[in-house]
Amino acid sequence: xxxxxxxxxxxxxxxxxxxxxxxxxxxxxxxxxxxxxxxxxxxxxxxxxxxxxxxxxxxxxxxxxxxxxxxxxxxxxxxxxxxxxxxxxxxxxxxxxxxxxxxxxxxxxxxxxx
Amino acid sequence: xxxxxxxxxxxxxxxxxxxxxxxxxxxxxxxxxxxxxxxxxxxxxxxxxxxxxxxxxxxxxxxxxxxxxxxxxxxxxxxxxxxxxxxxxxxxxxxxxxxxxxxxxxxxxxxx
Lengths: 114, 112
Prior knowledge:
Structural class of chain A: mainly beta
Distance between the termini of chain B: 41 Å
Helix content of chain B: under 10%
Radius of gyration of chain A: 13 Å
Low-confidence stretches of chain A: none
Number of helices of chain B: 0
Number of strands of chain B: 11
Largest sheet of chain A: 7 strands, mixed
Largest sheet of chain B: 6 strands, mixed
Oligomer: heterodimer
Structural class of chain B: mainly beta
Strand content of chain B: over 45%
Low-confidence stretches of chain B: none
């Protein structure tokens, strides 16, 4: 298996622009997690899905952030409008229903908002 | 909710020596404690985990210990090698939350 795939790997954008991050989980996995990593706040969970349904979005910072999972093999995290404080590395992770705690992370998307 | 504290934030050891990283958690209901290793430019990868029904688990040069009473757990790496240099994260979860809460991470440097 190719593992969790994220795109783009790097994104540089200007403040106010819309940013869309993409994730393809491991085939057959039931859970999908979006994390944000910064020096100040470490690794924080933003939202997670179970069988394509959002379960907990309490970590989403504000209404500028939205996430969707239209099918079992694709998810997006969108920031609109982006701000410099959104600069971070965004990770997607997936796991099986049985053993959801064992999460497999993608390589991450490094986002820089100027 | 759960809170996980991790120490130290940076650790430098000589190749061949041992390294120990410690974490404490706040929620006594937490029962699963994984450790992740993050190499430069990559996502975190699970290296070892422990559940609350055991006190210690080993896998070659790495081991994890858990003290439920004190609510702390530790990662031990013996005979360290240059490839052990990375950032290590601990985490905790409980059955009801269905999410991992991560510590702040420890940057481990192995000096040749």
